[in-house]
Design goal:
- It is globular, with a radius of gyration of 18 Å.
- The protein has two domains: 115 residues, Diaminopimelate Epimerase, Chain A, domain 1, CATH 3.10.310.10; 116 residues, Diaminopimelate Epimerase, Chain A, domain 1 (Roll), CATH 3.10.310.10.
- The longest helix has 15 residues.
- It is α+β, with helices and mostly antiparallel strands.
- It has a 17-stranded mixed sheet that branches. A two-stranded antiparallel sheet has the order 9-10.
Amino acid sequence: MSTIKFQKMHGTGNDFVVIDARKQSVKIDEQLAKHLADRRLGIGCDQLVVIETSKTADAYMHIYNMDGSKISTCGNASRCVGDILMRELKKSEASIETGAGIVKAKRIGDDLVQVDMGEPKWEWQQIPLSESRNTLHLGLEEGGLMDPVAVNMGNPHAVFFVRDSNFVRMAEWGKKVEVNPLFPERANISAVQVIDEQHLRMKVWERGTGETLACGSAACAAVVAGVRRELCARKASVELPGGTLEIEWVAEEGTNGRVLMTGPVAYVYTGETHVG
């Protein structure tokens, strides 16, 4: 039997169990990650986050979904880990190495953290898709969801624009689209309502987790998709069930630009669990 110390955090309702493996000997595998994320038998979270040392950044962040599967990056988790590192380093900036590259976090005011989510990608091979498709109009349909935009924000996203997100049955429709054969690595599914060009409202079905109160990379993908469809501005507030994120897609000559995400971070409690 071993003891694991952890910290429970959330970013706009997207909740995490954060384990600092720099300060304790921890070996996480798919089965243990799934157990710890279980809301009845474990601690409970959308994602399990493990912090380790890095040779190229202030720390390395491993991320496991609720089903135990591993993913490359997570925007809200990056903000939470960024806040931990900035407090630890007593600095207003921090760098986090992820499976999708290095993410930079920055303190904005007293209670907000901004992360640079990097360059969006939309070539069909970059999503990735199982076959060549126009990523601006994928042509998929499921229930009330029709014709999404595909975006990769370090992980694959299918963004559907809808008249009213309140009536979207994500637990039914999103679950089916996630595992569509067009997405060999599965996909995060979003239903986005355009309130006006600077205000989006959305629901998210997150691959490996299910319907969640917030998903940072999905909010970024929504703005990128909205701009590409000429539905919103490059800077917009994205309202999710758990709160609002501020997204800005910054243009850079010669590239697809970079997406900045700003939002709050919350510390819920610290604890320890016994496993083995």
